[in-house]
Design brief:
- The complex is a heterodimer of chains A (75) and B (417).
- Chain A has one domain.
- Helices cover 81% and strands 0% of the residues of chain A.
- The mean pLDDT of chain A is 76.
- Chain B has nine helices and 14 strands.
- In chain B, the strands form three sheets. Chain B has a five-stranded mixed barrel with strand order 1-2-3-5-4.
- In chain B, 23% of the residues are buried.
- Classes of the chains: A mainly alpha (75), B alpha/beta (417).
- At the A-B interface, helix 1 and helix 2 of A face helix 8 of B.
Chain lengths: 75, 417
């Protein structure tokens, strides 16, 4: 799985999100999407630090699947 | 042959013994390397001492040390060097020359000067360090980047040792609840076999390097002797060339060992290594939490801004609606006025037109025409419009304003053109 989330990927993405929000004026609609993603990343890191990483990955995988389904419905 | 006297072996050996004690009456400080050593049950110790030039033996002799002396000597040596007397060591013994009629020539060891061995060890260590420096190995492992989160750890230690136990319980009881994935690679951690054993463990780790973030060599709780193995060249190379950052927590009280020098990070004790690893995870979590806090503040601000924008928009909308009503109200008023004007104008125009019609109608009324002196002639009830409709002698009636005249037509003529 090439998209496997790692600590460094998660931290980097999280910090990019924070920077984006800090530096650009992000619309509230986009903001909620970004914050949702940030919350995922934070949850991933903190759970993985405490060894519940596998569960987190499963949750994230489910979540992504759902998102894909929803996007599929839109088109 | 006849000139030589004939004597017994014991007589010969006795003569040798006498000659030797005459020639070597004193004791001597002798530099030698221990090639072999063996102690018996009574505590007497037997050595094979050699002198080497490179790898070639240039001198060799047996040596004995009686139990009482040996106990004193070995304690003195260990106290000074933290190493037991063992093969491979260069030592400075005080020895007497001894010849026994049955057992032959040997040295009788009386004392030892550990400072010579200490100097030798230091020299050896220096040589190892210099060689490592020349080969660029001292800094090699330090050049590896510490992983962001050192969570998968390959540990080289002795399974039953206190140091390993301390390390594990410290990791397991970390106050943040972090979980670590720790794999033990068992090794002998002190003594003659240690260097080879630790090197072998490091090679095992190397085979599975992708499964680990860092390696740790931990030891402690054992005695403070026999740690010379950590100054060995082979171990230093194995540490330096491991593609994972190596932590040491060897738990010794003396100066840094060579292993410490080539390691990525050296700690005094196994618990210090554990603390360092835990602090690595804490630092990462702090970074994540800081991002979370910043995100929280940003969201709060963004929502406040958005709320403010919305409120402003609502106010503007209110104002715009009110304004538009006022506008339309006044528009309606003027339209009404215009309508009124328009209507009264229309009414007037219509009235004028009616008056004209009335007049016209009045003019055209036959009664009025008759009043003005015109008359209407008719024949058999039909109005006469042309002379062609009447002949002389016909009875016609003529309607005037106030009555009718009846008569006979005398003549009909046409007005000439």
């Amino acid at each position: 799985m090439e998209n496997e989330l790692t600590y460094s990927k998660a931290a980097a993405e999280l910090e990019v999100i924070v920077k984006e929000i800090e530096e650009e004026n992000i619309a509230v609609d986009a903001l909620s999407e970004k914050v949702k993603r940030a919350a995922q990343l934070i949850r991933f890191c903190r759970s993985k630090l405490r060894g519940t990483g596998e569960e987190v990955e499963k949750v994230l995988a489910d979540l992504e699947e759902k998102t894909r389904e929803e996007e599929g419905e839109q088109f | 042959m006849a000139e030589s006297p004939i004597i017994t072996l014991s007589e010969l050996n006795f003569s040798i013994k006498a000659a030797l004690s005459y020639s070597f009456p004193d004791t001597y400080w002798v530099i030698a390397e221990i090639a072999e050593s063996r102690c018996d049950q009574k505590g007497h110790c037997y050595f094979n001492l050699v002198e080497k030039d490179d790898d070639r033996t240039v001198a060799q002799i047996r040596a004995n040390c009686w139990a009482y002396e040996y106990r004193k000597i070995s304690q003195k040596f260990e106290k000074a060097t933290r190493e037991p007397l063992k093969p491979g060591m260069k030592v400075l013994f005080l020895a007497a020359i001894n010849f026994h009629e049955v057992y032959g020539l040997s040295l009788l060891i009386k004392d030892i000067d550990p400072s010579y061995s200490l100097g030798e060890m230091a020299r050896k260590k220096r040589e190892v360090i210099e060689r490592l420096q020349k080969e660029g190995l001292i800094e090699l492992n330090k050049g590896l980047r510490l992983p962001l989160v050192p969570q998968r750890i390959a540990v080289v230690s002795a399974p039953g040792a206190a140091g390993y136990g301390d390390f594990m319980s410290h990791i397991a009881n970390n106050p943040f609840g972090y979980s670590f994935n720790i794999q033990l690679f068992p090794a002998i951690m002190q003594g003659q076999e240690a260097e080879k054993s630790i090197v072998a463990a490091l090679h095992e780790i190397r085979k599975r390097q992708d499964s680990f973030d860092v390696a740790a060599i931990v030891r402690g709780g054992g005695s403070q002797v026999e740690l010379n193995c950590y100054d060995g060249y082979e171990l230093a190379v194995a540490i330096a060339k491991l593609p994972l950052p190596v932590f040491t927590g060897i738990g010794h009280e003396r100066d840094d060992t060579v292993a410490d020098m080539v390691a990525h990070t050296r700690m005094k004790t196994p618990t210090a290594v554990a603390d360092f690893l835990i602090s690595g995870l804490k630092a990462f979590e702090d970074r994540i939490l800081e991002a979370q806090r910043r995100l929280g503040r940003l969201c709060e601000k963004a929502l406040k801004d958005e709320n403010h924008k919305l409120n402003t928009l609502i106010q503007r909308f209110h104002y715009a609606v009110k304004n538009s009503f006022r506008h339309q109200e006044s528009g309606l008023d003027s339209a009404l006025k215009a309508l009124k004007i328009q209507v009264s104008h229309l009414l007037r125009t219509a009235n004028d037109r009616l008056t004209i019609y009335e007049k016209t109608v009045k003019h055209l009324d036959p009664a009025n025409v008759l009043k003005r002196g015109y008359s209407i002639a008719s024949l058999d009830g039909k109005v006469l419009k042309s002379v062609a409709d009447v002949e002389a002698g016909a009875s016609i009636s003529i309607r005037l304003q106030d009555g009718t005249v009846k008569g006979k037509v005398q003549e009909v003529f046409t007005h000439g053109e």
